[in-house]
Structure formats: structure tokens, C-alpha cells
Amino acid sequence: MEDQLEFKKRILDLELQLLKPRIRQSPTEIDKLLAEEFFEFGSSGAVWSKEDSVGGQGLSVRDMTLTNFEINLLAEGVVLATYHVKDLTRNQNTLRSSIWKLDSGHWKMFFHQGTLTES
């Protein structure tokens, strides 16, 4: 397995892709990043599936920044990513967590949660 720093950069890059407007507006690109079993507990309290994310126009586009990124290996081929997102469009802050799984040589997001926070 690649060294810890390179691995962290790889997972961070995947998370950053999901914040990019071009990716968020492309169901095809989103499909590549999400596992078939993907589900999300959104900061709104809604529960989303992969079909919800790729079945229409894609995800909503917002101006977001990501900070405080960390990863923890849960098992071989399974990693937990945690971080903070500032949504400048909605003036909201969220704590985020994602579980990424290695699937046929590609990392795919299996689970995601956003929790509103004050800062």
C-alpha cells in the first residue's frame, strides 16, 4: 500500500472532486465516484441514495471549502475520512464523514454524512 501521506492525498482528492461544480453537475462523473450501495445522511436530515445523486441533474452546486481533513483506515480497503466544510453559498458549516471502499481497484464512496455546526 502507498505511504500514509500519499494515501491521504488520494482520498482528499476524491473528496475535493465531489465539491467541484463540474463534477456535481455530471451524473456520469458522480456515478464513477459513488459505490452502488451508497447512501448519505444529509445535513438537512434527508437520506439520499446513489440513484438520488445520479438520477437527475446531479448534486446542487455551491461554493464550498474543505479543511481539517483526516483519514482512518477501518479495514483493508476501507477508510473513514473526516473534515469540515464551509458552504459559502448557504453560509453554513458542516462536519463531514465519508466511508470509502476499494472496489475493483477504484476507491468509491460508500457512505457520507453531513452535520451542521456553528463553526
Give the secondary structure arrangement, pairings included.
Elements: H1 4-17, H2 21-24, H3 27-33, E1 34-41, E2 47-49, H4 50-54, E3 64-75, E4 78-87, E5 92-103, E6 106-117
Parallel strand pairs: 1-6
Antiparallel strand pairs: 1-2, 3-4, 4-5, 5-6
Distance between the termini: 35 Å
Strand order in the sheet with the most strands: 2-1-6-5-4-3
Beta-strand percentage range: over 45%
Structural category is alpha+beta
**Arithmetic mean of pLDDT:** 91
Describe the global form.
globular
Low-confidence segments, given as residue ranges, are: none
Task: Tell me the number of strands.
Answer: 6
Primary descriptors:
119 residues; alpha+beta; 6 strands; globular
Explain this structure to me?
Strands 2-1-6-5-4-3 form a 6-stranded mixed sheet. It is of the alpha+beta class and 119 residues long. It has helices at 4-17, 21-24, 27-33, 50-54; strands at 34-41, 47-49, 64-75, 78-87, 92-103, 106-117. Helix content is 25%, strand content 48%. The mean pLDDT is 91. Strand 5 and strand 6 (106-117) form a beta hairpin.
Concise synopsis of the structure shown:
The protein has helices at residues 4-17, 21-24, 27-33, 50-54, and strands at 34-41, 47-49, 64-75, 78-87, 92-103, 106-117. With 119 residues, the protein is an alpha+beta fold.
